[in-house]
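Researcher: Here's a chain I'd like modeled. Treat it as a single chain, no partners, no ligands.
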Amino acid sequence: MDVVTSLPRHGMAPLDVLIVDDDPADVTLIEEAFAEHDAEHRLHHVADGVEALAFLRRDAPYADAQRPDLILLDLNMPRIDGRQVLAEVKRDEQLKTIPVIVFTTSAAVTDILDSYGAHANAYITKPIDLDQFDRTITEIRRFYGTAVTLPHRDA
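Model: Modeled as a single isolated chain. C-alpha cells:
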C-alpha cells in the first residue's frame, strides 16, 4: 500500500519511506504522524520481510517500486523477520546505503546490540504513549526529511 502526500518541501524531492511492519495499527499511526506535518513524502508499506526484500529488489509485484530514502523496520514479523531483512539490506551493494531505522516494540539489549552490529542507522523502541509515538515519528521525519543529506536514489 502506498500513501502519497503532496505538500511542498521547498523544491526538494519527496521523502520516500518504506515501512516494514506487520501491525496495521502501528502503520496507521506512522501514516497519521507523517500526514500531520508540512513535508512532501511518499509512504510505502509492506507487512513482512519477504515483501520488503521483493520491494527493495524490485521483484514482482514491485517492479516499478521507487528506491526508498529511508526504511522503518520492525523486528518481529512473520516469514522473514526484521533482523534478516536488515542483514540482507546491509550486505547488498545496491541497498546498503539506504538508512535503516529499526522501529520496534523490543527493548531487549541483545536486539539493540545485534541491530547496530548489523549496521542499523538507528534503533528506536516504539513508544506506547500516542503523543510520544507521534513526536518520535515527527523527529524521524524532520531529521531525515530536512537535516541529513541522503544518498542519491540511484546509488
